[in-house]
Specification:
By secondary structure, this protein is an alpha+beta fold. The protein has one domain. It is built from 1 helix and 3 strands. The chain has a 3-stranded antiparallel beta sheet with strand order 1-2-3, with no helix packed on it. It starts with 14 loop residues before the first strand and ends in a 5-residue tail after the last helix. Belongs to the HupJ family. This is [NiFe]-hydrogenase assembly chaperone HybE.
Length: 72
């Protein structure tokens, strides 16, 4: 998720390309009820194999380590 720096005066684009150490990721605008919005990037679609919150936390940690690591 990405939140515009100055959301109240920011004209939101439909999508943003955000560069992270592992590469560039496309984030799409998700409008909120108050007329503002945030940007989201879906990295995983199917989490049905996860059985516990611990497994979910471990997956999230590994995913963040990979996303934030420089591409080789």
């Amino acid at each position: 998720m990405a939140i515009p720096e100055n959301a109240s005066s920011h004209v939101c684009q439909d999508s943003l390309l955000i560069s992270l150490p592992s590469g560039a990721y496309r984030f799409f605008l998700q409008p909120l009820q108050d007329g503002q919005g945030c940007y989201m990037c879906r990295i995983l679609d199917d989490l049905s194999d996860l059985q516990t919150m611990q497994e979910a936390a471990q997956l999230a940690q590994r995913l963040m380590e990979r996303i934030m690591a420089p591409a080789t």
